[in-house]
Amino acid sequence: MNDTQGLTGPQEHPGPLDLATIAAGVERTNELLTRVLAEVATTPSTHAIFVDAGYVYAAAGRLVTGTEDRRTFDLDAEGLIEAFIDRARTIFPDSRLLRVYWYDGARRRIHTTEQQSIAELPDVKVRLGNLNANNQQKGVDSLIRTDLESLARHRAISDAALIGGDEDLVSAVEAAQGYGARVHLWGIEAVGGRNQAEPLLWEVDSQRTFDLDFCKPYVTRRAVYEPFGDAPVHQGPAPTRDDVRFVGARVAAQWLGSRGRASLAELLPGHPYLPGPVDQELLVEAEALLGLSLRGHADLRRALRDGFWDHLRTQY
């Protein structure tokens, strides 16, 4: 037999035993696929709630009390979080909650007493960005994006309820959607206009707004400002400009002690004007020390700012 006979000779065909083996293999594969599909069908989808606390405080405070200043009202965070969870149960009835992510700011990322109590709630994780000298949150949007993208990438969630309004969150929404998650934007009713960026509204899969009736049980205006230390509540005649100027210097000393000289260097180039958050903080703390509202006394507010600047400039 020459070398080519093996190539041109009769071809071997699978016998009955080989066909039976193949059939058995196909049957086992079908059984495995059936079990996998059944498991997938019975596994509930999962959702998570992402809360930008800065947005919630500002929007709810403005809606219920007319101000965004946290020091003038109390927010029942535990009750509000539970309300968000309950609402999610009705919106995603066939889904289980992974957890609630609560994003807030804190100086040097050290939890405040309030943030500690929120962190101790079941199914809640507190994530902190930094809080700068002007009480502005830094790094919160990037934390939201990191968590949203990571959970979507690992198929840990199928739906995300995002409570916020900053345009910087658009990239977080796009990242999560790129991995197949649906992102639902929840907001708080705005008092005139909008409190959520339009590009964010355009990108999400659905939108929902909580009105005054929903928010009102969780926001309470403080009856009076609490004085610092043992400062007495003002009684008797209205304070003079010199009195208020002295209080301004006292608040400046407290401000400098908590912020440090680096913040002072940032503030001085703007003299005689104060950034809005610093000016608001000065006013609220001065009113607490005086036991008197300065909202209707423009001359006293000017004296207050003069006293604040007088102290700061002597320390530079």
TrEMBL record:
Annotated GO MF terms: RNA nuclease activity
Domain NYN residue range list: 48-189
A family per Pfam: NYN
InterPro entries in alphabetical order: NYN (IPR021139)
Top-rank lineage group of the source organism: Bacteria
This protein's name: Uncharacterized LabA/DUF88 family protein
Organism, scientific name: Streptomyces netropsis (Streptoverticillium netropsis)
